[in-house]
Fold these 4 entries.
Entry 1:
Amino acid sequence: MSQQNRTNETKVLVLTLAITLGLVGGLLWWFSNSYGIKDSTFTKIRVETPNTDTFSQVPNVPTGLFSYGGSTTWAPIRQQVDSAVTIVWPRFQLRYTNPIEAAPGSSTGINMLLGNQLAFAQSSRALKPEENEKAKQLGFTLKAIPVAIDGLAIAVNPNLNLSGLTLAQVKDIYTGKVTNWEQLGGPNLPITPYSRRQEAGGTVDFFNENVLGGEKFGSNVQFVHSTTPGLEEVAKNPGGIYYASAPEVIGQCKVKPLPLGRKSETLIAPYKTPYIPPEKCPEQRNQLNTEAFQTGEYPITRRLFVIVKQNGQSDQQAGEAYASLLLTAQGQELIAKAGYVRLR
């Protein structure tokens, strides 16, 4: 075979190989794009993971007007969350509903939910057995979905010279066993304990169960309608004491939150130290001791719940959607902005 023929044959083989490789490459590219086959030789298909951290990515948000109500502890969260939800889901309309006669609170809200007055409820305590039983009698069940962490703070008059209290001492005050601050190392001054009534509030239920151990309030306890008048009474009464959700107390200028502990040698402040005295407020305000609440080092912490009917209807969809919105990164950030502790 001549040199010329061998050269021509080589060119044909090279051309044939190039065409074959081109066809194979093209087929592989087509398969990889059509069926998601990945190979390091070819451009990889980019698969986006759905972003579920924002309100806009929450599925199954219903349309319509939904009434809800319950815990007064939730008020700062409602202020932060509801307007933000409306911006993203304008057809998911939320309306906070106050009770007609009873004082607002977790218990009242759950009773209104059981009475078909609300689509879902907000609670600062877990469900009670009798509430679950009543729901079953009505043909459905209740589900409590935790969305945030909160705690109770003890407020006293800013002029009271006291380093803190143990839980046992708080119990003795509210059951009437201790009636003068001198008995606790303070000044010779009568103690005036204030509280909301137990039948309305989840905070009072929680306090009664976890601090008082189920014992009754002493006869010296004075009852107020809500936290605002309770704090006002403490601000003007040198011997006053009141308990409420920590975010409602910590940033106040006219009362002093006390460190608490299970033992006197381990008192934990509900605020970030150093303590900011009232004369520097409102330019500076005390901030929640978030870390102590998250770890449970602070002795009176609890979870906040969305209470949802499990009835397969739009009310259930609304309650579950609302809880899902709060559990997104966006919702948890708004909860933290409201002064509460993130669950996630």
Entry 2:
Amino acid sequence: MAEHIKYALNKLKETWKAHGREIGLFAGVFLVGIVGFEIGLVEGQSMQSKPLVIEVPAKPSPVAQVAGVSSEQKEIQKTVSGEVLTQTQNTNVDQNCTFVGSKNSDKYHLSTCAVVKRIKPENRRCFVSEEDAKSKGYVAGCLK
């Protein structure tokens, strides 16, 4: 068994003499990389801070309390291009609004039509009658 150990040591010495410089350079670069990684890991853990949270303040909207209306049905009034729009919070359309149009369209619809649910509250136009809608340039849409 001593013969095998002597043979292995001789081979190791020959390999070191032939390639010692390359092996040393590789080992040095490898160790520097490991040490650099560990330093970065430790430094990163010590510099860890709370996540950045950006809060956008909500726009204050005027809330009007209407006599005879429950607290769940507070009305929000928004002014859009000089017109005051009224929308009830717990329903898609105001109960006094028989016909609804959009500021982005020229059609008016019954407040019970499915298309009315897709109109954004800030784009809604409320009409009490068909004549009211037609007088403002709207044409009939969903009247089912």
Entry 3:
Amino acid sequence: MGAEELQAAWELLKEAYQYQMGGDYDMAVELYKRSLDLHPTAEAFTFLGWTYRFQGKIDDAIAECKKAIQIDPEFGNPYNDIGAYLIEKGEFDEAIPWLERSLQSRRYESYHYPHYNLGRVFTAKELYGKARHHFEEALKLSPDYALAKDGLDKVRHKIQ
């Protein structure tokens, strides 16, 4: 595997991401798969999973995130994404270890997301003190994160 293949794989990933953000999920899936054929990366598997989620294919999204973890167990995104997908499925207890693992990942730039998702889990489980803690942690890391602000407001009303 040479540097040219790796560079081409990253170029395909960036192109796929543009299609994904534009809502052309079928083209994004095709390009992510082409990127993965050239050089499998945790990012491409994770973003392919994210695209599947937009297509309503939650179980496929989870499977792609697990492939990402096999390639790079320190990449935090797929753990958080699996947790978020399990929340969508109403599997709150199953989501917790995935979200906690994302908080322990060394290669992750968005720790506010798993805190927010843990807040969502604990709100659903009516554990409002724990939910408040995680929403507050999310806001410490990303003070303008509107979803965490909304979650914290809702939880504060439940506690009072």
Entry 4:
Amino acid sequence: MSFDRLEQAIGYTFRDQSLLKTAFTHSSFAEKYGGESNERMEYLGDSVLQLLVSQKQYFEEGEKAEGELTKERQKLVCLDALYEEAERLGLKKYLRFFGKAASNIGKKTVSSLYETLVAAIYLDGGLKEAEKFVLANYPKAAERQENYKSALQEYLQKRGLPLPTYEGQKRGQDHAPTFLATARAGGATAFGEGASEKKAQQQAAKLLLETLKAKENTNTDKK
């Protein structure tokens, strides 16, 4: 089996092609024809992925506490998130398996291919190359997390209120900027901070939405 197209898709060429073969070797294939399955690589890839995602969070989401970061990471490396990325990259078609094992190749097996590929790149090119791959093919679960700007807009529209306004500014050095955002709506103001303008606005929208809901609940209790 040729992995040329896969290497082109991920932007990395393996020096040791045997690592790539092992990454796509199902236990049924290894049991029938010998050699190592990808199970140990899955274990290693999971650890490398956890590290890289944690590192990305640490430097980009400094406003979040440990518990919040942990919950977010769980979403980013969950079975569904990795399965979606493995499907997008077409990894399943490279899997080597034997006979009836095909009927047992489900989400778990396909999602693990993302981890085994991370491990293979790590073993072949080191942590920097694995990081390049993960950042370029980041699990998209983050996009399914709540969009607070949309939630705030929907909240205001349902109550016939004007849409929110956002103001922002950039601070710090160009290589490590900090973005500040101010969100205003419904007679309230909230501030957000983040490693990007989008993250700062999302935080401001989240805090503003919480403020407006608390205000609404207080007014309801007084009636």
